[in-house]
Amino acid sequence: MTIRLEAVRWATGGTTIIETMTLAFAANRVNVILGPNGAGKSTLMKLAAGRLRPTGGRVLLGESDMLTLDGRALARTRAFLSQHVEIDFAISVEEVVLMGRYPHFSRAPGREDRRIVAAALELVGMAERRHRIYPTLSGGEQQRVQLARVLAQLWSDEADPPARILFLDEPIASLDVHHQLHILETVRALAAQGCTVIVTLHDLNLALAYGDRLIFLRDGRLQAIEEPGGVTPALVQRIFDVRATALGDADGRVLRFHL
Fold first, then answer.
1. Quick count: other Cβ atoms within 10 Å of Cβ 135?
2. What is d(CA 8, CA 184) in angstroms, rounded to the nearest whole number?
3. How many angstroms separate the CA atoms of 148 and 117, rounded?
4. CA separation (Å) from 221 to 17, 89, 170, 245?
5. Which of 75, 107, 123, 188 is at a distance of 20 to 30 A from 172, taking alpha carbons?
6. Residue 141, domain member (yes or no)
7. Start and end of every ABC transporter domain (predicted)?
8. pLDDT digits (tens, 9 = 90+) for 76-122
């Protein structure tokens, strides 16, 4: 399923956050949005997901304007994981993940919904904590539970699953190295199963290792779109103001950075 931005712009309070931008995300691939702090990565994600209304231009899902689509139907094919999800009341881990199934049932969850919740928790390594009260978890554990929630929202066991889109805004920011890699492996597997993934990351080396298409922003402007093999030290310096040299990798995909 293709998402396209056509001359999209977003401004607030007299400040332009996203300059006029035309961009198509690669379907069934891992699209990584990269850039320094304040580049507009999270805002671009929200625009592409239909969570913000563009000041100018439009966002298309297939041939339809994202903002004209039925919200419940859209929620069954598009999920969004924010950087920070605040839940400060006593609710179990299992019930948080069950929120992802809300678009799929009308009054009460069924046996299939409960099975999918259990499978999603198992996938992120949180099955043993399913009865824990969510606010008592560490930040990294909470992030894994939230990932399970969006996975449950888009879950499909079909051999030929329907088109789905997963937006992940800094999904590994609070995770240790083991869980960072586990989550990114899961993301890669979803793309291989026909899910379009759009993710923001800060770690350029992880983006090179797991991304199919790298989208570089700076100051709210689209700077470059590259496959991992096309990322050069000159591009890195232009975007991040650091020098980069390749280390011990035949593809030149492991970088060391210098001021």
1. 12
2. 29
3. 8
4. 9, 39, 19, 25
5. 75
6. yes
7. 3-244
8. 999 999 988 888 889 999 999 999 999 999 888 999 999 999 999 99
Q: What is the pTM of this model?
A: 0.94
At 85 the pLDDT is: 83
**Location of structure tokens 């293709």:** 2
List the one residue out of 112, 174, 128 whose CA is nearest residue 147.
174
Cβ-contact 46, 1 below 8 angstroms? no
* Number of domains forming the structure of the chain: 1
Nearest to 41 by CA among 229, 240, 186: 240
Question: Residue 150: inside a domain, yes or no?
Answer: yes
Q: DSSP assignment of 206-223, as one string?
A: HHHHH-SEEEEEETTEEE
Q: Where are the beta strands (DSSP E) in 180-248?
A: 195-200, 213-218, 221-226, 243-246
Q: How many angstroms separate the Cα of 53 from the Cα of each of 11, 49, 103, 206, 209?
A: 10, 10, 22, 31, 33
Residue from 165, 136, 153 nearest 78 by CA: 165
Q: Which residue has the tokens 């400060």?
A: 88
Q: How many other CB atoms are found less than 10 A from the CB of residue 148?
A: 29
Q: Is residue 120 part of a domain?
A: yes
Strands 56-61 and 64-65: antiparallel
57-73 pLDDT per residue, tens: 999 999 999 999 999 99
> Which residue type sits at 259?
L
| Residues in CB range of 173: below 8 A, 6 or more apart | 83, 143, 202
For 87, the 3-state DSSP assignment is coil
Burial of 81 (0-12, 13-18, 19+ CB in 10 A): buried
